Structure formats: C-alpha cells, structure tokens
Amino acid sequence: MSAERPAALYERNKAHLDAALKACETRSYWSPFTESPSTSLHGPERPAEGKARFEAMLGRRFDLDQPGTIGEVGYEISPYTGKTLDVRYPKPDPQALFDAAKAAMKPWQRLTAEERAGVCLEMAFALEEQAFANAHATMHTAGQAYLMAFSGSGANALDRGVEALTYAYKALKDVPRTADWEKSFGRTGVVQLKKQYRIRARGVAVVVCCATFPLWNAYPAVFANLMTGNPVILKPHPNGILPVAMAVKRMRETLTACGLDPNMVLMAADERETPITIELLQHPDCAIIDYTGSQRFGLWIEEHCADKLVYTETAGCNGVVMDSLSDPEGLIGGLANGLCGFSAQMCTSPQNIHIPAGGVKIAGGETLSFEEVGQRLADTIVKRTEDPKRAAALCGAVQARQSIDLIEQVRERVKAAGGRVVLDSRPYEHPDFPGAQTATPLVVEVEADAVDLYGEEVFAPVCFLIREPSREAALQNAATLAAERGAISSYLYSSDRDFIEAAQDAFTDAGASLWINMDQRMPINFAAAYSDYHVTGLNPAGNACLADLAFVADRFRIVQFREPVPAEAAQ
Amino acid sequence: MSAERPAALYERNKAHLDAALKACETRSYWSPFTESPSTSLHGPERPAEGKARFEAMLGRRFDLDQPGTIGEVGYEISPYTGKTLDVRYPKPDPQALFDAAKAAMKPWQRLTAEERAGVCLEMAFALEEQAFANAHATMHTAGQAYLMAFSGSGANALDRGVEALTYAYKALKDVPRTADWEKSFGRTGVVQLKKQYRIRARGVAVVVCCATFPLWNAYPAVFANLMTGNPVILKPHPNGILPVAMAVKRMRETLTACGLDPNMVLMAADERETPITIELLQHPDCAIIDYTGSQRFGLWIEEHCADKLVYTETAGCNGVVMDSLSDPEGLIGGLANGLCGFSAQMCTSPQNIHIPAGGVKIAGGETLSFEEVGQRLADTIVKRTEDPKRAAALCGAVQARQSIDLIEQVRERVKAAGGRVVLDSRPYEHPDFPGAQTATPLVVEVEADAVDLYGEEVFAPVCFLIREPSREAALQNAATLAAERGAISSYLYSSDRDFIEAAQDAFTDAGASLWINMDQRMPINFAAAYSDYHVTGLNPAGNACLADLAFVADRFRIVQFREPVPAEAAQ
Hints:
The structure is a homodimer.
Chain A: H1 4-26, H2 39-42, H3 45-57, E1 69-73, E2 89-92, H4 94-108, H5 113-129, H6 131-142, H7 146-173, E3 178-184, E4 190-201, E5 204-208, H8 218-227, E6 232-235, H9 241-257, E7 265-267, H10 277-281, E8 286-292, H11 295-304, E9 309-313, E10 319-322, E11 324-325, H12 328-340, E12 352-356, E13 360-362, E14 367-368, H13 370-386, H14 388-395, H15 401-416, E15 420-423, E16 442-447, H16 451-454, E17 462-468, H17 471-485, E18 490-493, H18 497-510, E19 514-516, H19 549-552, E20 556-564
Parallel strand pairs in A: 5-6, 5-8, 6-7, 8-9, 10-12, 10-18, 11-13, 12-17, 16-17, 18-19
Antiparallel strand pairs in A: 1-2, 3-4, 4-20, 13-14, 15-16
Helix pairs in contact in A: 1-5, 1-7, 3-6, 5-7, 5-9, 6-7, 6-9, 7-8, 12-13, 17-18
GO molecular function, one term (chains A, B): L-glutamate gamma-semialdehyde dehydrogenase activity
InterPro entries (chains A, B): Ald_DH/histidinol_DH, Ald_DH_C, Ald_DH_N, Aldehyde_DH_dom, PaaN_2, Proline_metab_enzyme
Organism (chains A, B): Marinicauda pacifica
C-alpha cells in the first residue's frame, strides 16, 4: 500500500470537504456535482457516450472482479421495455464476502480521517463520472424518468453521500489521537501520562438498497461506514442490481488505484426467487445494517437483528393538511407535481390529503368546497399528464407490477366502501418506450373514518382525498397517522399563522417533519442534502436520519492506551 | 415558569462549560470541583456538619416529595456497622412516575441547550455542596472508604457527569435552530426556503445505579438525558438508596428553584425481595435505559430490551500482562494498590495476572521467577494491609456478603484444582467500625489452562497469578479474555517497546483499552473524566462509553419545518 496516495487525495479534495463542513453548519445549498444533464454543460458527446456505455453492458456478464463468486445471478426487467436486461452478476458465497471484507478492514483502520475522506471523495467524483450511464441503468431498473435518474440518482444522491461522509469526519475528528495529561495526586505530586486514542471500526456493514432509488440511501450508508472504518457489502434489490454493480465496480477501482484493498466494497446480488438478504443480515459477521425499503421488512429487521447496529429508512403514509390556500394555482400545482412525480414511488411522496368537509379558504375570502379542491387537483393532474412527453418526464415508469395491481385494488376497495373515484388512473403512452409500464395518479374520495383504506402506505400513484370534520380534525388525523403509521414528509397548506404554529407543535409531538405551503416552483418533496434532515427516527418510517451525528457516531468505538511519562522526560 | 432563570444560570456557569468543552478537546485534566475533603480547604466545620447531616437522616422517613408514592420502602445495611440504616423512602407506583416524568418533559423541551446546561451545572454544584454528607451515605451503603467516598463518589463522579453534559451540549449545538436555503430550479428560478429545526427528546430514561458506586455512572446518564430533553427515573440498588435519594432530592430542589417541573428527576426505590427493575425497564413508557451493574444482567437487558435505547457499563475480568518490570517496587506497588483498592469492587480493578512461567526481567538484566513475582506482590499487599488504619483507608469495606462467600469458594475451587494459595484473605480490624465487613485480597496461583477458575469476573478481592508458557501466551490469553469475557481496564508491564506495540495491537483487536506501566504514584485504575474513555463498547463489559458523541447523539432526534420565503420578502 502506498501511504502517500490517500493523503494526496485528501489534499486534492480538501476544499470540497471544507465546503461540505460549512454547508452542514449553515445548512444552506451547496454541491460539488453537476445536477443537470444539459449538453450545454457537458457537451454533446457525453450523454451519448453514457448511453452507449449502458447499452454495452446489456446481454452479457457484468465485469465485477470480486472474491467469493460461485456462479452467476441476476434477472432484471426494465419497466420501460418490459424485457430483461440480461446482465449476469457474480453469485456470491456470503461467507467468502465477509471474510474478504474483514481482511480488507484491517489495513484500512490505519488510514487517518483525512485519508479516508480523501479516498471517499475521490470515489464520489469517480461515480459522478459515470452519471450518464448510471442514469440509463437507473431508468431501466427503477423506472425513473431520465432527468430524475440523472440528477436525483446522480448529483443529489452523491450529495447525500458526501453529507454523511462529512458527519463521519466530524465525529472522527472529535477524538484526538493523543493527549498529555497531568494531575497532582496529593503527596506523591504530579503524575504525567501520555495517552493515545485509536478509532476502531465495528465490523462488516450490509447495505440493503431499494428498488426505486438504488443509490440515494446507499451512498450515505457506504460513506458513513467507510469513513468510520467498516467495510461494506451492498445488497441490491433483485430488480436494481445494475446501478449498484456499476457503483461497486467504480468504488473498487478507486480503492485499487490508491493501493488499497478493494474488498472494502463488495456486492451480494440475488434473484427474487432465491433471496439472500436475511442470510446476510443475520450472518454472525454482519455488525451493521443499513436498510432502505418497505416499512414491514424494516420493522422486522429492527426487531430481529437488534444485536447489530440497525439503521432504517422505510416509508409511511405521508399526509397533507389543507387549511387555506393563499395561492391556489401554485399550491395545488405543487401538490399535483408531488402526486405525479416518479408515479409517487418516493418515500417523500404525498398520499393522504386531509381536507375539511367545509372546504378551504382561498385568497380574497372565498372558499373552495371539498369537491372543488379535489376537482382542481384532478384537473391539474390531467393537465400535467395529457401530453405524453410531459407525463414521461414527470411520472417516469412504474417499477413493480404490484404497484399497478395496487391501483386496481384501491379503486375497488374504495368503491366498495362507498367512496368515489375523482380521477381514474390510466397508463399513458410513453413517447420513447411504447411498452412502458406507466400509470397516472388515481385520486379517490373517502371519509375520515375509513382509515383502513388510507392508513398505510400504498406504494403506487394513489391519492386519497379525506373528508374531515374540520381543519383541526384534519391536523389531528394526519399527525396521529404520522406518529402511529409513520411519515417521512408531511405537508401543510395554510395562511393562518396560528394554525401553522399549532400544526408545528402537533407534528413535533408526532415526531414528524412538516413542509409548509410548498408551491410548484420546486418539487415539493425534494430533500436537500446538508439542509433537510431526512427521516426523524421518531415514527415507524425509519429509525435513522440522513444525516446527523447519530447516523455516524456509533459506527466506531475508541480504544485507548496510557502510560506514565518517564521521570527523566517529565517536566 | 420564569424563563429568565435558566438563562441566568447559563450565564453564571458559562465559564465552566467553556472550560469543560476545552477539556474534552485537549483531554487534559480539569475540574471545577474540590476533590479533597481536607479541612485546610473546607475549614473544620463542614466535615462535621456533613457527618451530622448524614446521621440526622438515619432511622426515619427520607423527605423526598415526589408524586406516585404508595407506601414506604427501603432496607439498607451498612457494610461498616452491619446494621440497617433504617431510612424509609417513597415506594413508587411506576405508572405514576412515568406519567409525571412525561408531563415534565413537555415544558423542558422549550429550554435551549444553553439553558439546560445552565440548570444542569447548577445541579452539579448543588450536589457538590452536600459532598460530605454524601461521603458518609456512600460509605454506609457502598462500603467505600471515607476518602474515596468523598472524592471518587463526589468530585470525580460529578466530573464524569459534567463531561457527559458537555458532550450532549456539543451534539445539540451541532443542530442549528434555523437556516436560510436557496437554490435555483431551472426555469422557475431561485427558490428560497426558511427552515426550522427542533430538538425532540426520546422519552423517559430509567437509570439503574449499582451497589458499589451509586452515582459515578448515574451522573453522566442523568446529565446526558436531561441535556437531550429526557426525564430521568433513577433506580438505586436496594442497598444503595440513600446517596441516590439525596442526589434526586437536591436535583429536584434545583429544578423547583428555577421554576421548572421537578419531575424531570424521580427515584424508584425497591427492596431486594420485591424488585421493580424489570418492570421499569420493560414499561412501554421507558424509552432509554442506562444500566450499571453485573455483566449478566447487562447482557440480559441488551437482549431483552432492544426496543429501547440501551447503554450499559458492566464488568469483565480485567487482565494484567507481565513481561518485564523496569521498576519492580513502583510497579508491583501500583498493582498491589489496585488489588487492594476498595477491596477490588471496582469495574476497573485488576484480577488476572498473566505471568510467564520463566519469570519476568527486571532492571539490570535480572529475572524474577514466577514465584518471586507472586511473593513480592503478596508481601506488598501484606505491608499495605497490616496497619488497620492504612488497610481501612485503602480497602474500605466489602459491600455484599456474597463477595465474602466468593473468596471462600475461589479458595476451595483453586485448591481442588491443584492451585496454590499464595496469600490468604483475612478480615482486617477496622479502627472505627469494629464490626465492619472487611477482607484483604486473596492471591492464588493457577495454571493457564484453568480458565474456568479465572475466566469471569469474581466480584471480590481475589487475584489470580496465572502461569503462562511465555509472554506472548500471556498477552494472547489476556487479550482473548478481554474480547470474549469483557474487560474495562487491562494492564501491561513491559520495558520492551516492541512488545508494548504488539500488545497495543492485540488489545485493539480485542476491543479493550490498555494501561501501560502504571506505577504506585497514582491509583492505577483511576479513570479521569474528560480524558479516559471509560468502556470501549467493543467487548462484553458494556456497550457505551463515558463519554463520547455516541453516548449522547442518539438520545434526541430532529423535527424540521420548511416554508418558502414569500416573494415580497425574498431578495
């Protein structure tokens, strides 16, 4: 191992780390990555070259050189083409992966916090280099639209990774490497001790990635673990292997180029029919679990893997409380975007819209009735989705067939319960991929007491207009659901400052964050690295936050030595 | 609530907080408390007045005004007199305590980090004010000698509390209260958001105190919890209620004097025959557990209460590796002190002395045989304990009858296994308390393969001289025991720098801290606040460290609000 290299990478990336530290402190916007795929920024060749790189990977064995391979695995279906990508990945022997990771962990411990940061930042920029290819890989596994796949699964995801890296750096730097200590002990006089502190990693981390955002949560977990000394085995979703494999390959290349053991980062892929996740999580050598996915499995892990460090980010039923609309077009427009965006397959997508039966006030003293609010929302959704090009850019494709089935089930259940379909879902014709699995949002009207219909996440483009007795009841119901069923992003529309404050208190008690009067100028559910604490950890939608000190501080421990300063050396 | 008061307390104590922050950073010695009970510092009256205060509490109902009292409880025996203190404490209704704590938690959330620090530091100084009375209460419950009860359970314990307070302050201050965020969103232009971040406590913490150091670990847990917003129910050991009751009463008085709800700090006492600990720990309203005590119960809690945040500090079998003795008198003298100190009833007391069968080198090239090392150690222990006054100051009393029984059991088991008693234990005659339960250390010689004899903590003044094939074998055995059975403080005596480094690596791998060549100028097992990380959390002797960021960062979470800046206000 050439010790200079990581130190040189630190020097090269130091300005970024300093800027990231500053961003964490001020929580203002910052990014060293290019968010837009525009050819005016990248030139005309890079997008095409990225697409070609993606296409060259299809229909063959993915070239991932890692230990413990005992065969081939992988069966991914593109939500855009309905066809298999036909890429085969290493089928792993889990024990061999854990052994390789543990062997890699030992020399990695010797790197300083600065050196680790240098290597990890280098990885982040190496990952950005393949942002175009990654965008296509993300489209054809997760179903994201091109723009989201480029920015949301590229720069924005890397931002979250660098944010976690930065928190880990802060936590590591809180521990000095040495100290001089002296104290008077009565008659024996002053004793001087030389103390040394060593950062000690926990062990191998298994990072479970989700289907619809393969890397957005994975990068923070990977960098938090690497920074604190823990090797990582990434477990992709069976339909989201390619983006993870590309990232793992690239990170391993960076490690190798630094003269480091690439087995600090490994991948364990599987297929739906022969899953290996539980085996990995319950493996005695697994010390840390970072999980993104369904609430059900997340809670199972929290309960059954409690002997490991467990960090989860799952889902809830995100609520919207409607009180009054100072700017109906902008606010309903923002909400419609949120309902359509990536076909509501985001953990931050709104689902339950709690509307007082008496309607909502708008500017000028008028009131929109409950039905008018629903109709305006439905009309806006229709406007957003009638042009296939616009629909494609906004909605992308639906990752799982189960989500399409869910739409059908919800429609029938709502009708059976006496609810009303305000806007039906329909597949839109994708301009580039005629066979794409698509669905516009289903909007249904239900009574407040029909909690069994809307009281948990429906992972599909489905939105409930919930008729509430009053705004207070709307707030109470939304906050209670957040507390009991979980919520990652909740929304409030109100121009009454007292009601906003009451809502803030109610959501604080519920342990849920609240976005207020978010309009259509930006995606209402955008979660900004360095600024928005993602997941509170106080409700069933996950126990960890991207990113705070709690996300990193327990991933390492401290071993200490002390020794008296010899009398001749002591002053 | 008068909001000015906590802010004023912050101003009054700000210099201490700043100094504590500095001490955490440099890890050098600092204390705002008076460690010595000397009359030259305190005047002649305060020691006597403290003793009188203690005596005035005996034989009556303890005046602790807290909610949920359903009777009286308490049966403590003084290890010095063998008699009951006959103090009766409130017998609690657990649900009423949790309810009171939850009610107190709500207004407490409104205090800033500065205000909380002000209140907690005020509490710490109020606790110091009763250091003399606490010393007597600690003596007659825990069995500590007067000096240790004054400094170790007074200033030194408060130091650890303020250290945890300071770490919590750092973690809280890492989260800003507000932020201004702006970002360009393509064609819509720049969007500005105003963001607010609220610290949110977890819930009620139950702090389980141990018998021999009722407050040393309790103060850090109490202050870490209060700082992060969590109310505390202290659960004293059935024979260690009085010091805890005094502390709880004093902390409640400080809260009341600030106009705050005193139910942020409550006590739940019990008796050995009718324990309530498990009921408290498994209560649905218990969110956090801080536990100090036996390894067995600590591991039980980690396994069975994994749905709570669990912080444990338990015990291990602390090893001593002997390679060479540059200063035999000073080093063996230090070790003898460590074996006698508080009759080895400390989680940092050495127990297993791993000595090469071929002996250990001393300065000048000579070698002390295995037997000579043991004999010198035994002779030094005899010298330390033959004068009853000196024995009393060093050994104190033995808290539990079970520890006396353990000495007997070890002696018989060792003999039956073919081991040898090098120095037998005996009760020494205490100069002030003729009936005191006392015991000088038992020193026995065993073979390295007799791990069943020495492979777990013997909570009694018992020390094993373990005949090892070589120094390497000694190191290996000690490090393995530390990793597998737990260790809080391990010790090495060597003047060979290469061997010291090998030992540091071995103990790093074992996840255990190592004190090297500690001589008799200070207590070898003294753990210094702000400097020595106490417990690594990497072996079975506990999962938490006093104090690091991991000890505090997860005790609170963050709830966030965000809202666009209105167009007219935006720049």
